[in-house]
Each structure stands twice: as structure tokens, then as C-alpha cells.
Amino acid sequence: MSRVANQVCDDEHLLHAAIIRNRLNKIEQLKLLIDMGEYKFGENSENDQAINQREKLREWLCQKEYEVCEYKNLRQEMHEFAS
């Protein structure tokens, strides 16, 4: 999908996908601090937002093989995660 994304997705969709990828990367970078209990909320709002969305993002990304998702619902969910 990523190779043809620019050809099949509009700018808003691409932006939301980039924001979500950034949040997932941020979560991965903060994982050690979180696991050790050393992460301090309130020091960086971008990090806080990523951490707060961690479980919902994980659940959202684990769509079951036969689970159907309407495209407009997908776009709305991406918008909510990216906001």
C-alpha cells in the first residue's frame, strides 16, 4: 500500500497516516521509560498524547482477518487518532 499511497489516497488521508505512524514511533521510543515507570506525564504534550492513545491504537491496528470496516469509518477513526 505505501508504494502507491500517493496515487490512491488524498492529502488528508496521507497526513493522518503520517501522524499515526509518528505516534507509533513515539510510543516505541518511550517504551523503556514506560516499562520502568520513569515516564512523567506533563513534560511533553506530544508524548502524552501518544501514550494516552497507545492501547486504542494497538487495538485498532489488530483488525481480524474477516472483520469489515467501512472506508468512511476508517477515515473518521484516523481523523480522531490524528487530532
TrEMBL record:
<protein>
    <recommendedName>
        <fullName>T3SS EscN ATPase C-terminal domain-containing protein</fullName>
    </recommendedName>
</protein>
<dbReference type="Pfam" id="PF18269">
    <property type="entry name" value="T3SS_ATPase_C"/>
</dbReference>
<feature type="domain" description="T3SS EscN ATPase C-terminal">
    <location>
        <begin position="10"/>
        <end position="80"/>
    </location>
</feature>
<dbReference type="InterPro" id="IPR040627">
    <property type="entry name" value="T3SS_ATPase_C"/>
</dbReference>
